[in-house]
Amino acid sequence: MDAKTHQKLVELYKSVELLPTDQEVEDKKNGKRKRKVPLQHGHSQLDWVKKHNAIQSNTLYQGHGKIPLSEFKKHNTVQDAWTVYKGAVYNITEYFTYHPGGDTELARAAGHDCTKIFEFTHSWVNFESMMAKNLIGYLIPDDMI
């Protein structure tokens, strides 16, 4: 990848980046943990792993997995949620009822790059493994289609 393309991708990811709030940073410094919300029966993390393992395979966006920014930004609701983690785009829609922090917290990631907030909040969790079969492609600028 040439330097110009690399810089373009860096700027693209920054344009959709989700960062921890000042309050979240302060709470973490003070050792305060976010509270978990009650989940529906059958929607624990173990249940997610079982469901995820049962999925045959992921489906790449339009067969090639290159997702333009304009398309990515359309998927920003609880009913249709995509997020970016380390440049890869994941469909997180099915995960809302499994998220221990609740759907309101997870909804913040819809239509955004969640890399920094995820690593800030869940540094011990392997996102790529947990969402591997929900990978649908890689975010690219609209003019790189």
What key attributes describe this structure?
35% helix, 7 helices, alpha+beta, single chain, 145 residues, five-stranded mixed beta sheet, Flavocytochrome B2, Chain A, domain 1
Low-confidence stretches: none
> Ends: how far apart?
15 Å
Beta-strand portion reads 5-15%
CATH topology assignment: Flavocytochrome B2, Chain A, domain 1
Radius of gyration (CA) equals: 16 Å
CATH class: Alpha Beta
CATH superfamily: Cytochrome b5-like heme/steroid binding domain
Following the backbone from N to C, one meets helices and strands in this order, namely HHHEHEEEHHHE
Output the structural class: alpha+beta
Shape: globular
Strand count: 5
What is the percent of helical residues? Answer: 25-40%
Total of DSSP H or I helical runs spanning 4+ residues: 7
Largest sheet: 5 strands, mixed
CATH-derived architecture: Roll
Count of the separate structural domains: 1
Which whole number gives the mean pLDDT? Answer: 89
In spatial order, strands of the major sheet run 1-5-4-3-2
